[in-house]
Specification:
By secondary structure, this protein is an alpha/beta fold. The protein has a domain at 3-151 and 238-280: D-Maltodextrin-Binding Protein, domain 2, CATH 3.40.190. The protein is built from 14 helices and twelve strands. The protein has helices spanning 3-10, 44-58, 79-84, 103-106, 117-126, 129-138, 178-185, 198-204, 215-220, 248-252, 256-292, 301-319, 324-341, 348-360; strands at residues 24-25, 28-35, 63-68, 90-93, 142-149, 156-158, 172-174, 189-191, 209-210, 229-232, 241-247, 295-298. Helix 7 crosses helix 12.
């Protein structure tokens, strides 16, 4: 999708007329979903609409979900509080945005050098993650679900080449979540602006570099127009889970079958969203390289090693956090990460290495 056409559609509905209060008539609930994304943003904006439609369908129309994009009711960064306070019934965003609420929340979204998308879902479903997720968000009056994943993210767009660790010091860089802590420890000047604000910031020099998601979503924002060096691997976010959180009172008031409908709507979208990202990222990367002059570059190994060391320090801090729940979340995550780290080199890693050898040959 071209930047101009995406931006033209992203503003549709921003000046919405006065909103009716949630209604419960003839057994039909009118729910408002607020999202952290512009409307129809390739990747998360599209996924948010898919979720709204799926909840409506699986509930047999007894829950009518209307999506409001970032800024149409509240700004993107305000969706967590809006749903917690009952201004809307549910939101679509990512856990990486809520570190100010609790650092423990960040582990449910992405972890530098952490879980892949499939492993993240496995931790939730089979490693005790969902119970901890529920406990943490319950503090804020929310019922959370993972409902998608962007897969491996990229290190991002850089105006200048990175040849050494020294090149990162003082670099103005946009990122989120625990990766912000890692990058700060390397002397980078981290900015937490919304992803769609990156274009102007890179263009004006307010940013030297930044990461958002990956080729599909990034190219829709036009980032290739203002920075030509696209760096991998995105070790700061080996995956990035998308979430839906429902106001806990609204969820508790549902009949049991409707609770199941909401739960399954979220869970059933995780893999379709992930596989769409992977497919569209691959297609977009070809176009970025072949048609837009983007140069794909690998981060120097000394940078990756330094980031790994910084993440070890971050994890040590999480394990000693003053909040007992944060410590339990951290230990559960580490236990599952280590379990997968002992297995995946033989399974996924082995297959990818074997395929790469054939492909290169």
């Amino acid at each position: 999708m071209k930047r101009r056409s995406f931006l033209a559609t992203a503003g549709i509905g921003a000046a919405a007329s006065a909103l009716a209060a949630p209604a419960l008539a003839q057994g039909v609930r009118q729910w408002r979903m607020v999202s952290a994304w512009p409307r129809n943003l390739p990747g998360p904006g599209i996924a948010a609409q898919m979720l709204a439609d799926r909840i409506t369908a699986l509930s047999g129309g007894r829950i009518q979900v209307e999506l409001f994009a970032a800024g149409e009711i509240v700004p993107g960064p305000g969706v967590f509080d809006a749903v917690a306070e009952g201004t809307a019934e549910l939101y679509h965003a990512v856990p990486a945005y809520w570190g100010s609420k609790s650092r423990g929340i960040l582990l449910f979204g992405s972890q530098p050098f952490g879980l892949t998308a499939i492993e993240q879902h496995g931790w939730m479903l089979h490693g005790g993650g969902q119970a901890l997720y529920d406990e943490m968000y319950g503090r804020f009056g929310l019922k959370p679900f993972l409902c998608g994943n962007s897969g491996p993210q990229w290190a991002g767009w850089f105006r200048n080449e990175i040849n050494s660790l020294d090149d990162l010091r003082g670099l103005k860089y946009r990122t989120t979540g625990l990766n912000s802590e890692v990058c700060s420890r390397l002397g980078m000047a981290v900015e937490a602006m919304p992803g769609p604000a990156m274009f102007q910031a890179l263009q004006s020099g307010a940013l030297d570099a930044g990461e958002f998601i990956g080729p599909w979503s990034d190219s829709a924002l036009g980032l290739q127009q203002v920075a030509k060096n696209y760096y991998w691997p995105g070790v700061g976010e080996p995956s990035s889970a998308e979430e839906c959180a429902v106001n806990l009172d609204a969820f508790s008031a549902l009949e049991d079958d409707l609770k199941e409908a909401v739960t399954y709507a979220c869970e059933s979208l995780y893999n379709p969203v992930l596989t769409e990202y992977n497919t569209k990222h691959a297609m977009a990367l070809r176009e970025l390289v072949n048609e837009h002059g983007v140069t794909v570059r690998e981060l120097p190994q000394e940078v990756v090693a330094a980031m790994a060391g910084a993440m070890d320090e971050v994890v040590a801090g999480l394990r000693e956090d003053s909040d007992e729940l944060v410590r339990r979340i951290t230990e559960s995550y580490l236990e599952y990460r280590d379990l997968m780290a002992g297995y995946m080199p033989y399974s996924e890693g082995g297959q990818l290495n074997a395929r790469a050898a054939v492909h290169e040959g």
